[in-house]
Design a protein that fits this description.
The protein is an alpha+beta fold. It has six helices and three strands. The protein has one domain. A hairpin with a 6-residue loop joins strand 1 and strand 2.
């Protein structure tokens, strides 16, 4: 997949994601662990952020928390609208390639979050599990499995009881 279409989105994520993660971690100060999910639609029309301290990411759909930052919505919608070669309504190799490229952008942005964001909110990076998936659709489990392994260290996975 041509990843140049994700460059502007990746730059926005790298710039703005630390502030959003800071908001979430500030909200849950005093907890030992936090899971943060990037949830998208089946056709990749934006992300919202959700979080929980239970340690069970399989129940993300029941979490009541959510942020809808603009940088995770419209720029992604613009990318999807520009992908005339992909039918986002059906599963396909092209759609999965798009998902993997998108996860790579998120991975880079997550790994660039400054350590200070975690520290000032009383967390170690290893105590925060990041993942991405669809709220419904073709690749719910596949995206979750791939993103958990991409976004997190072995220490984080171990802390959440997830095998690599």
């Amino acid at each position: 997949m041509n990843t140049t279409r994700f460059e502007a989105f990746g730059e926005l994520c790298s710039q703005k994601l630390p502030d959003e993660i800071n908001k979430i971690l500030n909200t849950v100060k005093g907890e030992k662990i936090c899971a943060i999910g990037f949830i998208t639609t089946d056709d990749f029309y934006g992300f919202y952020l959700t979080w929980n301290n239970s340690g069970n990411i399989n129940e993300y759909f029941e979490w009541k928390n959510g942020l809808n930052p603009d940088f995770l919505y419209q720029p992604l919608v613009d990318i999807v609208d520009g992908c005339k070669d992909i039918d986002f309504c059906v599963p396909s190799d092209e759609k999965w390639d798009f998902a993997q490229a998108l996860l790579s952008v998120l991975e880079k942005s997550i790994k660039q979050i400054p350590e200070e964001i975690f520290r000032k909110n009383g967390f170690k990076r290893e105590g925060v599990l990041f993942f991405s998936t669809m709220g419904d659709g073709d690749y719910i489990q596949a995206m979750m499995d791939a993103s958990v392994k991409m976004f997190n260290t072995s220490e984080t996975l171990e802390a959440f009881g997830i095998s690599r």
